[in-house]
Amino acid sequence: MAGQRVQRLREEIKKEASDIIRKLKDPRVGFVTVTDVEVSGDLRHVKIFVSVYGDEQEKTETMEALQRATGHIRTEIGQRIRLRYTPEIQVKLDESIARGARIFELLRQVSSAEVKEPGNE
Questions:
Q1: Residue 55: inside a domain, yes or no?
Q2: Which of 33, 45, 79, 116 is close enough to 40 for a disulfide, judged by CB 3.0 to 4.6 Å?
Q3: Non-local CB neighbours of 107 within 8 Å, separated by 6+ positions
Q4: Sign (positive or negative) of CA dihedral 90, 51, 9, 86
């Protein structure tokens, strides 16, 4: 039963955090996607994982802006989702999409290199 509650809360926080981040007025916040949310068992701590589109400088600026906005995000989540305690928020950069794209590219290069070898004809 508690597992279902945590799962529902994860999905709700993911939806609301995505909406809150999209509406932030900070010009440093670039194109951000909320990829996942982790909620602690006692529902007092939340990690929001985000993917940021852009180069390293844009990612750094966006993450700095999001770190500064955690208080605002927490307040908004507290108002939108009724819980006994509003959870502490941490925003973490999720590099899994970029890492997956890099692995895919490396596999593609290995595959094309194998086709070009003279002994494989």
A1: yes
A2: 45
A3: none
A4: positive
H or E stretch covering 53 = strand 45-53
- Is residue 41 included in any domain, yes or no? yes
CATH of residue 53's domain is 3.30.300.20
Whether 52 contacts 62, CB under 8 Å: yes
Q: Are strands 45-53 and 31-39 parallel, antiparallel or unpaired?
A: antiparallel
d(CA 5, CA 105): 39
Give yes or no for a contact between 99 and 51, defined as CB atoms under 8 angstroms apart: no
Per residue in 58-91, pLDDT tens? 999 999 999 999 999 999 999 999 888 899 999 9
pTM for this predicted structure: 0.79
Reading phi first (left if > 0) and then psi (alpha if -120 to 50, else beta), residue 4 is in alpha
- Name the DSSP class of 54: S
**Separation of alpha carbons 108 and 59, rounded Å:** 26
